[in-house]
Amino acid sequence: MKRLKAALLAVLVAVLGLMCLTACGAKEGVYKFSYMRVTEGATSIEIRAGESFLGFILSEDAYVLELKEDGTATMTVDMLGQQETVSGTWTENAEDKNKVDLTFEGETVTFECDGKTLYGSMDGTELELKKS
Questions:
Q1: Of 6, 19, 22, 119, which sees the most CB atoms within 10 A?
Q2: Which DSSP category does 51 fall into?
Q3: Cα(69)–Cα(117) distance, integer angstroms
Q4: Domains and CATH numbers, the chain
């Protein structure tokens, strides 16, 4: 009986471990706008999903990034009644497995990625996207 319990416990631990590795490490998926900070000179503006900015509300659909299993990516920006989608690629960063390299229109940007949140900055703008 004691051996059976130990064997069952070992199998349970192995299965849970595999599930955690699969769920926690998967970077593929759809990420939506959560937070933005724009800095120009000494001025910073912070905006969260659902808050008003210049008279309009930035919803979580303002920025939608999809990382697909085949290494392709699409980014849709939907602001002020204008919507634009660009296609590109993504790869796990060669030096840091907690980062991804996104390439759109010939420009590559590196974002931190834990499988639930993407965070990066470019040109004075910090952007956070959460997996939906």
A1: 119
A2: -
A3: 17
A4: 26-131 (2.40.128.280)
Cβ neighbours around 68 below 10 Å, total: 13
Check if the beta carbon of residue 90 is closer than 8 Å to that of residue 77: no
Within 10 Å of residue 76's Cβ, how many Cβ atoms? 15
Please indicate, yes or no, whether the overall pTM of this predicted structure exceeds 0.90: no
Angstrom distance (rounded) from CA 132 to CA 29: 8
Structure tokens that stand for 86 in this block: 């660009």
Sequential pLDDT tens for the chain (132 residues)? 333 223 223 332 333 333 333 334 589 999 999 999 999 889 999 999 999 877 888 899 999 999 999 999 999 999 878 899 999 999 999 999 999 999 999 999 999 999 899 999 988 899 999 999
